[in-house]
Amino acid sequence: xxxxxxxxxxxxxxxxxxxxxxxxxxxxxxxxxxxxxxxxxxxxxxxxxxxxxxxxxxxxxxxxxxxxxxxxxxxxxxxxxxxxxxxxxxxxxxxxxxxxxxxxxxxxxxxxxxxxxxxxxxxxxxxxxxxxxxxxxxxxxxxxxxxxxxxxxxxxxxxxxxxxxxxxxxxxxxxxxxxxxxxxxxxxxxxxxxxxxxxxxxxxxxxxxxxxxxxxxxxxxxxxxxxxxxxxxxxxxxxxxxxxxxxxxxxxxxxxxxxxxxxxxxxxxxxxxxxxxxxxxxxxxxxxxxxxxxxxxx
Length: 298
Prior knowledge:
This protein is an alpha+beta fold. The protein is built from nine helices and 13 strands.
C-alpha cells in the first residue's frame, strides 16, 4: 500500500497548449470536434507530452479538492479529498473523507522539517484496532516530496491524467473537442475508454468487479474535460460518465480542481507526543498498513 505511482500530471501542462490553440476564438465558440479536433489540437499536444511532469512540480502554495464517486450496479463509493501544500521547503496535508461513513477518515501530514510524517485515523479505524491512538507517525517515504505524484493530494488526478494521455496516445481521435466558453474559459474534452480508466487505476477496483468488466464496458467512453481559466490556469479536471454494458450499469464522476492559495493555517496541529503511536521502521509500517487494509475491507 505504500507504493506510490509516478504518473504524469497532464492538466497544468495543457494550459499553454489550449490557450494558444484557442486564443482567437470568440466567447462561446465551439472549436473543431472529432477528427478535426485531433488535427487541430494534436500537434500542440504532442509538443507538451514530455513536459507534463513539470506542471505539478510548479504548483506551489495551493489547495486542491477532489470529489470521487463510482457506482457499479448497486455497489458504490463516494469520497472527498482536500489537500494543501505550502512553504519552501514544502509542507503538505491531505484530508480524506468517506461520504458513506463520516467516521472513515484518513488524513496525512508531511511537515517540511524532520524525518517523519503523520497519519490521523478516524474513529472507525481506532475502534477496529488499527492503532491504539488516532495519530500515528512513521518515517517519511523514500521519495520524499520530490516525486510530483507521490502524495495523496494528487494521487487520483495523476491517474486521471495517465488515463487521458494513454487514450490520446492510443488514438489521436480521442480528442473530441475544444470550446471557448462564454466566461472566457476554455474547455478541452478527451474520450477515455473505461478499460483504460480501469487499467490506470483511477479507481482501484476489487477482482470481484474487474472480472465482470467485459468488452462492452471496456470500450465505453468516459469524457475527460479540462477547463482553463481566462489567464490560462487550470480551473477543473472532470471525468464523468453514465453507461451500461455486459449486463451492468455504471456511473462515475471524478471532479478535481484547484481551490485557492494555501498557508500555514491549512496544516494540522499535532497533539502531545503521548497521543501519537510511533512506527519506527518498515516492519512496523507494513504491519500498520496490513491492519488498515483489513479494516477497510471488513
